[in-house]
Amino acid sequence: MDRIPILRMGEFLLVTIQVDMHDQLALTLQDDLTAQITRTGARGVLIDISSLDVVDSFIGRMLGSIASMARLMNAETVVVGMQPSVAITLVELGLTLHGIRTALDVEKGMALLRASAAGRRRA
Amino acid sequence: MPVLKEETVAIGSDADVVLVRQLVRRRAQELRFSLVDQTKLVTAASELARNALEHGRGGEMLLQVLQDPPRSGLRLVFADQGPGIANVELAMKDGYTTGGGLGLGLGGAKRLVNEFAVESTPGKGTRITVTKWH
Questions:
Q1: Which of A42, A116, B17, B62 is spaced 20 to 30 A from A106 at the CA atom?
Q2: Residue B69 is part of which domain span?
Q3: Cβ–Cβ contact B105 with A under 8 A
């Protein structure tokens, strides 16, 4: 079965979504990511959606679920690279992805995760 | 109004929802829709195809390329033989869902297109027609 690869970078997990996801693929990603967080003790998850030219309510809901699940497992999620046309469409659709942290690109997203992990270590 | 081209896609699995998105994207590109308008129409099509699959037990999409000079447009008709929608007005409201989703499908799709019509007969099925002009 198809799977979206999950890369490990230090204490973070990196997912680049490059295919037009069908629903089952999205659900598999959810399962794989939560399993990987447990196995690696990752402190953050970065999801790069810059190749996605459509985010509908199903994929939006999946991103929200991943962020909530990861948070319960002590990992932060940052979604990066959303295309402007996708952002415009999502807001008009009524999906504001409330509660999901975002950054413009992978580099800024990683910086956000590092700062957040450092902050939590100090606390 | 002259219909330049007609195509039908069966919607029987979530892989078909992907096919619907790809076909709508291709035709919208051919008609030189702006990137934002392409994205809006493809997103609306994805919501409605998933509706037909989840609530209508599958169905089909009819795509029509319309010519109404100086405008051109894309009309998508999603038809299923599912249980139908008992209360269309309620179903259009954001947050209303019977399927465990976010309930943004119908109302959200309406905001993404220029014309939107629902015909539904309980017990017989639902037909949703959307049009986007360029």
A1: B17
A2: 3-133
A3: yes
Q: Report the CATH number at residue B61.
A: 3.30.565.10
Q: What is the dihedral of CA B56, B110, B60, B3, to 10 degrees?
A: 150
- What is the per-residue pLDDT across B32-84, written as a single tens digit (0 to 9) for each? 999 999 999 999 999 999 999 988 899 999 999 999 999 999 999 999 998 88
What's the ipTM?
0.89
Tell me how far apart the 2 most distant CA atoms of chain B are, in Å: 42
Count the domains in chain B. Answer: 1
Show which of residues 4-43 on chain B sit within 8 Å of chain A, judged by CB atoms.
Answer: 14-15, 17-18, 21-22, 25, 35-36, 38-40, 42-43
CA distance A26 to A84: 22
CATH of A6-118, picked from 3.90.850.10, 3.40.50.620, 3.40.50.1820, 3.30.750.24, is: 3.30.750.24
Q: What tens digit of pLDDT does each residue of A27-78 get?
A: 899 999 999 999 999 999 999 999 999 999 889 989 999 999 999 999 999 9
The pLDDT tens digits for B74-129 are: 999 999 998 888 778 787 877 767 665 555 678 889 999 999 999 999 889 999 99
Probe site for chain B from A54, A55, A100 (most B CB atoms < 10 A)? A54
Query: For residue A57, which residues of chain B lie inside 8 Å, CB to CB?
Result: 47, 101-102, 104-105, 108
Closest residue by Cα to residue A67 from A42, A95, A44, A91: A44
Polymer length in residues for chain A: 123
Beta-carbon separation of B40 and A89 below 8 A: yes
- Residue B121 is classified by DSSP as E
Min Cα separation B45/chain A (Å): 9
